[in-house]
Amino acid sequence: MATLRLGDEAPNFTAQTTEGEIDFHQWLGDGWGVLFSHPADYTPVCTTELGATAKLKSEFEKRNVKVAALSVDGLESHKGWINDINETQHTTVNFPIIADEDKKVASLYDMIHPNADDKMTVRSVFIIGPDKKIKLMITYPASTGRNFSEILRVIDSLQLTAYQKVATPVNWKEGEDCVILPSVTNEEAEKLFPKGFKEVKPYLRMTPQPN
Ligand code: BEZ
To answer: Domain 164-207 falls in which CATH fold?
Structure first.
């Protein structure tokens, strides 16, 4: 299996999850998706990550994003661990955790990095668009819990830039000024961005978030 790259189709699979068997593409439907792996059940950092994800359900729903987690542990292990996540993180896990004991999905998505650990998945994140194409991949080591605010921030940027001829600058957050794509001429920019734009340099033009 060739390494996945941005723009590739997210590989489809069927899998057992804590919310029943899913066909990944069917389950995603017409919306966006986040597929993320964690090293193992009953581990401390992962417990905090999955609890935080559950608490962000309304934020993901607002953006029409479905979330699925994955590790190479089995279904019974996932189900037992969910009780601990709910208890310790004061939440209710409300998204499927894929049981990938045979490492089928982990190998499709290259989530096991043998020089880090040859048995457990690393902390991979894939954001998948409604066209089932991979829009973002990030990989964290086992020792570093992810920042799920950053994942939401990237989704906001992806959803904006999918429809508007802008990109988002450093540390951008929803509602802040955007940069106009270099391919857009100033004449076009005047029509496309009625709120106006500021030409800092010919290649650096800022406009209020257009949507
Ligand atoms: C954790 O989730 O806490 C963890 C998992 C594997 C290695 C180190 C930490």
So the answer is: Antioxidant, Horf6; Chain A, domain 2 (3.30.1020)
